[in-house]
Automatic annotation (TrEMBL):
Residues bound to GTP: 184-191, 265-269, 329-332
Quaternary structure and partners: Part of the signal recognition particle protein translocation system, which is composed of SRP and FtsY. SRP is a ribonucleoprotein composed of Ffh and a 4.5S RNA molecule.
Span list, region Disordered: 1-53
Catalytic activity: GTP + H2O = GDP + phosphate + H(+)
Summary of the function given for this chain in its UniProt record: Involved in targeting and insertion of nascent membrane proteins into the cytoplasmic membrane. Acts as a receptor for the complex formed by the signal recognition particle (SRP) and the ribosome-nascent chain (RNC). Interaction with SRP-RNC leads to the transfer of the RNC complex to the Sec translocase for insertion into the membrane, the hydrolysis of GTP by both Ffh and FtsY, and the dissociation of the SRP-FtsY complex into the individual components.
Recorded name of the encoding gene: ftsY
Entries under PANTHER family matching the protein: SIGNAL RECOGNITION PARTICLE RECEPTOR SUBUNIT ALPHA
Protein name, UniProt field: Signal recognition particle receptor FtsY
Amino acid sequence: MFSFFKRKKAPETPAPDTAPADTALLPEVAKTVAPPPAPAAAPAAPALAPGPSLAPAPLPEVELFIEETAERPTTEAEKKKSWMTRLKAGLSKTSSNLSLLFVGARIDEDLYEELESALLMSDAGMDATQHLLDSLRRKVKDEKLLDAAAVKAALKELMVEMLAPLQKPLELGRHEPLVMMISGVNGAGKTTTIGKLAKHMQRSEQSVLLAAGDTFRAAAREQLMVWGQRNNVTVISQASGDPAAVAFDAVQSGKARGVDVVMVDTAGRLPTQLHLMEELKKIKRVIGKGMDGAPHETLLVIDGNTGQNALAQVKAFDDALQLTGLVITKLDGTAKGGVLAAIARTRPIPVYFIGVGEKLDDLQPFDAEEFVEALLG
């Protein structure tokens, strides 16, 4: 489970020598490089326009990254045990109402009514809740299940079956570079997630370049720069201006430098802000002008605390950008983890990662069986 990514190599596509004509009007982007300059003996790199002097105090969520170095589990068995412990603890607010239903329960109509209430309270949504209950009733009848433990096991099986379409590994190495566009509303943990993903990719022997395309939120660029410094990753940025230009320049730099992955951060958007959603569409189009077929992954970061509102975000961003994957964060602070069932029934976009804490290893690939086991115990 802890092989975070699935790799697949594709034939190398030569990069174009010049930017396309319809990007010629994009403003010139000043590149700010997070890691220290290369030694003098290294081959000369293209001249970079000087950026502002950056010495921000690390934001609290970035500071927590430092704690990751202490006593990390080493063997696969230890890693899995550690992750399951954190996952169960993280989902405890969601699972408390569900798992307790089956303690000494009788298999009657009262149990189904209580189960319905618990699923709706977890924000599973009416469609997913009704589907699970109908399927469970049939299974109990067909298999003549008579005790609570057997009914609970049957519910686990049905939930895994429902969530299985969301389980898909993020494939690396399909393109050189693999271009990823990351979107999400403000407060979802998008920039922090990018920093964690960059570190995961480095563990998978992938070189990474980041683009600070969130030019609207205060300190967003500086926050990404801190993550770049922590991970020794180059960050392409500018103090202000067109985020599409930053994205285009990052793709060109990624091809020139021969990096494996380019991740483009974008400004937070509410799906109701149609003029700002149009800006996201523009960024995606411009990335495509920088490299044919890019972005290869278009991800949405969702705050698990938002429950059914998260489902509305998935629909709106998918309609605008044709999402390829989701990252669901902050499941450790919510009783609304059932929203994954609602997503599976309504808009089954792969959930590449889920997060149950601030530390690096608290972001892990989504596994349907593990999730259900943590939820129902």
